[in-house]
Amino acid sequence: MRLLIIEDDASVSAYIAKGLSEAGHVCDVLADGSDGLFQATRESYDLLVVDRMLPGLDGLSLVRALRAAGVKVPVLFLTALGGIDDRVEGLEAGADDYMTKPFAFAELMARVNALARRPPVQDVQTVLRVADLELDMMRRQARRGSQVIDLLPKEFTLLEVLMRNAGRVVTRTMLLERVWDFHFDPKTSVVETHISRLRAKIDKPFEVALLHTVKNAGYMLHAPR
User: Fold this and answer.
1) CA distance 76 to 74
2) Has this prediction a pTM greater than 0.90?
3) At what angle do helices 59-68 and 33-42 cross, to 10 degrees?
4) pLDDT at res. 201
5) How far apart are CA 67 and CA 176, in angstroms?
6) Residues pairing with 170 in the sheet
7) Rounded CA gap, 225 and 215, in Å?
C-alpha cells in the first residue's frame, strides 16, 4: 500500500515510516497540515496516518477538508489527544480509526491492515430515477416530470423500496418487512391501501403508468419499453 504520514514529530514519523516500509508499504512523510492536505488531494493514497496537532492546518480541519472535497481515502488519527470527546470529534470529522500516543507498533500495524481490508467506499445513490419519475433522498422529494408529488412518510418509503427494485417483482411480504417492519402477516390491507394511494399520486395524473400489479406475485415499478 501507499501511505501518507502527516506528523510533525520527526522521530515519531521516522519510526512509523521505517516499520511500515519494512512491512512492504511505501510511505511519504509530511510535517505540515497544509502540505498534507495539498498532497492528499493531488496524489492517490491507500491510507493516511494523521496527527491532530499539526502546524499550518490541524488534523481535524485537514480531514474535514478532505471529506468536503470528496476524497474518501481511509484516515487513521494517531495523536496524544485521547479523551472520549477527542475520539468522538475525530471520528465525526471523517476519520476511520483513532489511536492514541504512546502506542505499540504492532497495534498500529494491525489497524493499518484492518483498514486495508475494508472494501472501497461506494458512492451512495441519493437520487433514484425510473423513466420520468425521480425520488430525491436528500430533499425527501418526489417528482414526475416537472410536477412535484406530495408523499406521506410511508408512501415515500414504499416508493423508495419499489424504485430500488425497479424491474423486479416486490412481494407483499417484502413490503411489510421493509416499509412497516412487520415480520409477520398482520392480516390487514395496509399494503394494498398504500399501493392504491401511491398509484393515485404517481400514475393517475400522467399518461403512462409505472406501478404495476403482478398477479399472484406482488408489485413492480418499471418504465414501458
Assistant:
1) 7
2) no
3) 20
4) 97
5) 36
6) 219
7) 20
Give the start-to-end residue ranges of the domains of the chain. 2-117, 127-221
* Other Cβ atoms closer than 10 A to 47: 23
Match domain 2-117 to its CATH number in 3.40.718.10, 3.40.50.720, 3.40.50.2300, 3.60.15.10. Answer: 3.40.50.2300
Is there a contact between 189 and 196 (Cβ–Cβ < 8 Å)?
Answer: no
Q: What DSSP state is assigned to residue 201?
A: H
State yes or no: pLDDT of 91 exceeds 80. yes
Contacts of 21 (CB under 8 A, 6+ apart): 27
For 84, which DSSP code?
H
Amino acid identity, residue 39?
Q
Q: Could you tell me how many residues make up the chain?
A: 225
CATH code: domain 127-221 is: 1.10.10.10
- Map grid coordinates 496527527 to a residue: 51
Quick check: bond before 153 cis, omega within 30? no
Distance CA 143, CA 32 (A): 47
Cell numbers for 89 = 470529534
Tell me the pLDDT tens digit for each residue of 95-151: 999 999 999 999 999 999 999 887 665 555 678 999 999 999 878 899 999 999 999
